TrEMBL record:
Protein name in the entry: Permease
Family indicated by similarity: Belongs to the UPF0718 family.
GO cellular component assignments: plasma membrane
Keywords, alphabetical: Cell membrane, Membrane, Transmembrane, Transmembrane helix
Compartments, record wording: Cell membrane
Membrane topology: Multi-pass membrane protein
Keyword Transferase appears in the UniProt entry: no
Taxonomic source organism: Modestobacter marinus
Length: 300
């Protein structure tokens, strides 16, 4: 607002217009799914009894991970929705390994994403199968790695406000949803601003030059998926437009994006703590790239 009065011409510069377009697009894409995730999180924390999860998931974390990962198929949302839901699951006593498997699987293998991928890559069902297998593999591997190496002190869940005495379940649901929406929405804005800033600084001509190198192509598109932070329901159409890159490189873009991007890292930091995000994001990135390359070599 201050720039609008002091230097209105600066707001009409192409770079500024491009930045604002990307920022608004990222936030508007993610906001409906963030609201969905916050609503599900509030419902889980206030309306669902804890005994439900102990009955639905196996007691052994190693077995709970694949069950939670496959359960991600039924949630038609993006990564913004999965983070608050995963946080709520941990608060309700679900083992973190299973909650993290769900967090990674839900935005990548749900029916909406798979149908969008099929539409973006017509006549190439192997691309849909490759995305499903590689993304589910990332969720399972990260869940099992947490079972083996994760520590409870790495998770610093944001505290929820204490419910007022005599508060009804519906009123508690509204309070929990309002709290989570304000908390997670702030990190979404930070992530969207970072994605917009980085998105306008990456020249398209540079991408075309590195597409000829198989290794560089995979790494560049994987890094671009992190920086652009495109919603998982829309990223397939962006990947399909990058025709100068191999299918394997574009698969890496599709597998990495829903698992690791700047707005997702910001949301994870806000939900689970900065220390968790700094450990979880780079390992997830490496696992996602390796599995995308491996599945791509077999199916594509």
């Amino acid at each position: 607002m201050l720039l609008h009065f002091l230097a209105p011409a600066s707001l009409q510069q192409p770079v500024v217009l491009a930045w604002s377009t990307v920022f608004v697009a990222v936030c508007l894409q993610a906001l409906p799914f963030l609201v969905l995730g916050v609503a599900l999180s509030a419902a889980i924390s206030t309306l669902v009894p804890p005994s439900f999860f102990t009955r639905a998931l196996p007691r052994r974390p190693a077995l709970a991970v694949p069950v939670a990962g496959v359960a991600g198929v039924v949630l038609p949302g993006c990564e913004c929705a999965s983070v608050p839901v995963a946080g709520s699951l941990v608060r309700r006593g679900v083992t973190p390994a299973a909650a993290l498997a769900f967090l990674l699987a839900a935005p990548a293998i749900n029916p909406v994403v798979l149908v969008a991928t099929a539409v973006a890559f017509p006549g190439q069902p192997e691309m849909v199968a490759a995305r499903f297998l590689a993304s589910l593999g990332v969720a399972l591997v990260m869940g099992w790695l947490w079972t083996l190496l994760g520590r409870s002190e790495w998770l610093q869940l944001a505290r929820l406000p204490a419910a007022a005495p005599g508060l009804s379940r519906l009123a508690g649901f509204r309070e929990a949803m309002a709290h989570d929406l304000v908390h997670a929405g702030g990190f979404l804005v930070v992530g969207g601003a970072a994605a917009a800033t980085l998105g306008v600084l990456v020249p398209r001509s540079w991408l075309e030059q590195v597409a000829a190198s198989p290794v560089l192509a995979v790494l560049v598109l994987a890094a671009l998926a992190v920086l652009l932070a495109i919603c998982s329901e829309a990223d397939a159409f962006v990947a399909a437009s990058l025709t100068s890159f191999s299918l394997t490189a574009r698969l890496a873009f599709l597998v990495v994006g829903p698992a690791v991007d700047v707005k997702l890292i910001a949301l994870q930091a806000g939900t689970f703590g900065r220390g968790f995000a700094l450990r979880f994001a780079p390992v997830t990135f490496g696992v996602a790239v390796l599995l995308a390359v491996g599945v791509g070599a077999v199916l594509l």
